[in-house]
Design brief:
alpha+beta, 2 domains, eight-stranded antiparallel sheet, six-stranded mixed sheet, 10 helices
């Protein structure tokens, strides 16, 4: 797949935002249909391309890196590793094939780069990992003995010995394991730890979201109040969030009003028999419309708007608990962002995303078939901002082709 990017830089808000760790580049060196693809990521990124251009696989690679950064086991992240191997990849003399992905995390430590090589056949294992910053290799692992379930790791020390060597498991990413292995006694070790923390924090708070309206129409059991990736339990989440923050809920209702047909005075959830809750639109004239009566596009709009207004405490994500929320950024991965939406809905939703991303606490990577409308929608927010409304920070469009 070929990739090219363009950015629409619009007036940014004047309020300073913390230098939160964030992923600014995704590298698909050899992954599924991608070869040597480098995707630049901004606060609001739109991946655009026809069917078969690799939008979904790019989001899958991002999500996989996020899960590995959270300490997930390799087999759980890649249940079908063969599908990630480029179709024309040839096995080596030992009949091995695999794939390579990577990313760059920017933040207080500057750009930190992570690249991972995974063997998918004949058995799944990590065979190489490299963490670098400013041209210095901070961590490097390699498979030395195929008979052992371990890789040989070397990390930067800059002390009496330039590097420290030790084995690491071959079924987990080494970067999140560094705080357990590196003492932090030398400047070099502290640099390794700071870079690893920046990468892990940037990767951890990722929410892959693809609302499924068919599962949102019926009442759901009350649960944790944390939104699932398919938004099946949207009613349960509304039951919680409506009471938590009145101001945020009012903004959410205003967004829903712009994306749904008919008047909308409130969006709420009500308990029903059997320990379930159902979501409703209050029309303001005594009529309440259950979600089961809403259209496919209305439900997707409502669910994605709710995601943009909430945060890690409401979404089913695994943020770095040891890092203050003010220093973390939630990244939403939205496949088929405009699926089922009409022209008005998709423009309204992207404008909402632009406003939310401009605040710095949330980032969005959205996949669409055609991005010709996206820049126009966000530029409209920028023009409105010059007249006194909130300005958007711009949209980065990455064009993918088969």
């Amino acid at each position: 797949m070929a990739a090219s990017s363009a950015s629409s830089a619009l007036p940014a808000s004047v309020a300073p935002v913390p230098d939160r760790p964030r992923i600014t580049q995704l590298r698909l060196s050899a992954f599924a249909g991608h070869r040597r693809a480098v995707l630049r990521l901004g606060p609001l990124t739109v991946l655009a391309g026809p069917s078969g251009s690799g939008k979904t696989s790019a989001l899958r690679a991002y999500d996989a890196l996020a899960r590995l950064g959270g300490g997930a086991e390799l087999g759980a992240v890649f249940p079908d590793p063969g599908a990630c191997v480029p179709e024309r990849a040839r096995p080596d003399a030992q009949h091995r094939r695999g794939f390579r992905i990577g990313c760059t995390a920017d933040g207080a430590e500057g750009p930190v780069h992570l690249d991972v090589a995974v063997q998918a056949e004949p058995e799944l294992r990590i065979v190489g990992e490299r963490l670098t910053a400013d041209g210095v290799v901070l961590l490097e692992t390699a498979l030395r003995d195929p008979g052992r379930r371990a890789v040989q790791a070397a990390w930067h020390t800059a002390g009496s010995a330039p590097v420290t060597r030790a084995p690491l498991p071959d079924d987990r990413l080494g970067t999140p394991l560094l705080p357990l292995r590196v003492a932090g006694k030398t400047d070099g070790q502290r640099r390794v730890l700071a870079a690893a923390e920046q990468m892990v924090v940037a990767l951890r708070s990722v929410f892959a979201c693809d609302p499924r309206p068919g599962r949102m129409r019926e009442p759901v059991p009350t649960g944790s109040g944390r939104l699932l990736g398919g938004c099946d339990n949207l009613a349960d989440v509304l039951w919680r969030t409506r009471a938590e923050c009145g101001r945020r809920h009012a903004q959410f209702v205003a967004a829903v009003r712009a994306g749904c047909a008919g008047p909308v005075e409130d969006v709420l959830a009500e308990p029903a028999l059997g320990g379930v809750v159902g979501a409703l639109l209050d029309r303001g004239d005594g009529v309440r419309t259950g979600l089961g009566r809403l259209g496919y596009g209305e439900l997707r709009f409502l669910a994605l708007a709710l995601v943009l207004f909430t945060g890690p405490g409401v979404l089913e994500v695994d943020p770095a608990g040891e890092v203050p929320a003010a220093l973390q950024t939630l990244t939403v991965l939205a496949d088929g962002f405009d699926r089922g939406l009409d022209v008005r809905q998709r423009a309204e939703l992207l404008r909402l995303a632009a406003r939310m991303c401009d605040r710095g606490h949330i980032r969005l990577v959205a996949a669409v078939a055609d991005a010709s409308w996206a820049v126009e929608a966000v530029e409209a927010v920028g023009e409105a901002g010059q007249a006194g409304a909130a300005a958007a920070g711009g949209v980065t469009v990455v064009h993918l082709s088969p």
